[in-house]
Amino acid sequence: MKIKKGDLVQVITGKDKGKQGKVIKAMPREDRVLVEGVNRVKKHTKAGQTARGSQTGGIVTTEAPVHVSNVQLVVEADGKKVVTRVGYRFDDEGNKIRVAKRTGEDI
User: How far apart are CA 1 and CA 27, in angstroms?
Assistant: First the structure.
């Protein structure tokens, strides 16, 4: 998977199209990513009590994962943020390095 935790991405399809956010969690086995502030859902949690006796539960708003094909990496070029595809190259020691296809610079 070409998107990693901590990357800045932009949603390219769906109800949150155009929104940008940081990747909180990458799930390569499911081909999904969790993006900050994107695909917010309301989750109903069961009411319970903590050790101190306060009430917990109710309706909690949280992020749900989105498919990695629906997001694109954002890089900065000439002071502007642009979306780009990700490629790879190998350096002299044989290390794999991610490269922004649109700008040609290393990520």
Answer: 9
- Amino acid at site 19: K
In what order do the strands lie in the sheet containing 71-77? 66-67, 32-35, 20-27, 8-11, 71-77, 80-84
Q: pLDDT tens, 28-51?
A: 999 999 999 999 999 998 888 777
Contacts of 66 (CB under 8 A, 6+ apart): 11, 14, 16, 32, 33, 34, 35, 38, 39
Q: Which residues pair with residue 79 across a beta bridge?
A: none
What residue segments make up the domains of the chain, in order of their start?
A: 7-100
Burial class of residue 10 (count of CB atoms within 10 Å of its CB; 0-12, 13-18, 19+): buried
Domain 7-100 has CATH 2.30.30.30: yes
